[in-house]
Amino acid sequence: MGKLENRVAVVTGGGSGLGRGMCIRFAAEGAKVIIADLKLEAAEETAAMIREQGGEALAVECNVLEAESIAAMVKAGVAAFGKIDILSNNTGICLEARNSIRIVDLEEKDWDFTMDLNLKSAFLCCKYVIPEMIKAGGGNIVNISSIAGHKPAFSAAYGAAKAGVIAFTQSVAMQYADDNIRVNCICPGPMKTPTGIMANRLGIYKQAQPARIRMLERLGEAEDIANAAVFLLSEDSSFMTGTQLNVDGGSFAMTVNIPPRVK
Ligand SMILES: NC(=O)c1ccc[n+]([C@@H]2O[C@H](COP(=O)([O-])OP(=O)(O)OC[C@H]3O[C@@H](n4cnc5c(N)ncnc54)[C@H](O)[C@@H]3O)[C@@H](O)[C@H]2O)c1
């Protein structure tokens, strides 16, 4: 029997990278999965992978920056599977990673977009999914932050947004503990997703920490995050809420943290 049997999970940004990895693994653990992604085709691809392995999935086109779109996704998910009791707030982006922009040069719209996709999206999804969890008698939320959220990062907007995800996780955990809802977050380090590979190719992680960036030499795989998420969503972690779990190859624990030369 899987660790998420009889559960219904929403995964935002489930059409790619870490989100896709979580969708596939949640389904393998017995959950029915609602894949909420801006790109319907990508969500459909993930759904097809789940069905191929005998699981149940619903692909939904959803923009996590828009309340109406989230409300419609939640409605479609409940209509398909009867309830929602798992939420993975996974969407996020680091625009500054592209060329290590300093804040004087950071465009206001890019600051806002970074905050919205990484942080406000979690607020909006919780706002619409938590009432369904309460109806279901409880639930479990896992937010995807980053080690940049609690270790100095050159990218100011991304670091601030991801730090916000950690604080948000703690507050929501406190607010809904009595409703049998646990809320935790995962802080990935450098990962082997399309976005992570791009950042690595551009030397972003090395630029931030030129000496050595993590204890374990390999990059993280989507499966590494999915494993941690299943743990946080299952009874194995029933005494954990409001926590952050680093899945980073030892990156957070490395003390070397030399800022890049900017001139
Ligand atoms: N990749 C890394 O190295 C790394 C490291 C630390 C943290 N993270 C975090 O992990 C999370 C996932 O990262 P990833 O590398 O897998 O991302 P990714 O770029 O591979 O996938 C993101 C997915 O989100 C979808 N999406 C984008 N905007 C959306 C919107 N408005 N509404 C709904 N869906 C939308 C995209 O279509 C895509 O399918 C992010 O929060 C990221 O900040 C990633």
Provide structural commentary.
With 263 residues, the chain is of the alpha/beta class. It has one domain: Rossmann fold. It is built from 8 helices and 7 strands. Strands 3-2-1-4-5-6-7 form a 7-stranded parallel β-sheet, sandwiched between helices. The chain is globular. The termini are far apart. Nicotinamide-adenine-dinucleotide binds next to helix 1, helix 4 and helix 6. The site of nicotinamide-adenine-dinucleotide has 29 residues, from helix 1, helix 4 and helix 6.
Task: Furnish the topology, listing elements before pairings.
Elements (H helix, E strand, L loop, with lengths): L7 E5 L4 H12 L3 E6 L2 H13 L4 E5 L5 H15 L4 E4 L18 H29 L2 E6 L11 H21 L4 E8 L5 H8 L2 H5 L13 H12 L10 E4 L16
Parallel strand pairs: 1-2, 1-4, 2-3, 4-5, 5-6, 6-7
The structure holds nicotinamide-adenine-dinucleotide.
| Domain module count | 1
The major pleated sheet works out as: 7 strands, parallel
Mean pLDDT: 92
Strand content: 5-15%
Regarding CATH, which class?
A: Alpha Beta
Low-confidence stretches: none
Number of strands: 7
Helix and strand composition category: alpha/beta
CATH superfamily: NAD(P)-binding Rossmann-like Domain
The CATH architecture designation is 3-Layer(aba) Sandwich
The molecules bound to the chains, other than polymers, are: nicotinamide-adenine-dinucleotide
Helical fraction equals 40-55%
Report how far apart the termini are.
57 Å
Rounded to the nearest angstrom, the radius of gyration is 18 Å
SS field, number of helical segments: 8
The strand order across the widest sheet is 3-2-1-4-5-6-7
Using the coordinates shown, work out and report the CATH topology.
Rossmann fold
Shape: globular
Can you write the helix and strand succession as a string?
Answer: EHEHEHEHEHEHHHE
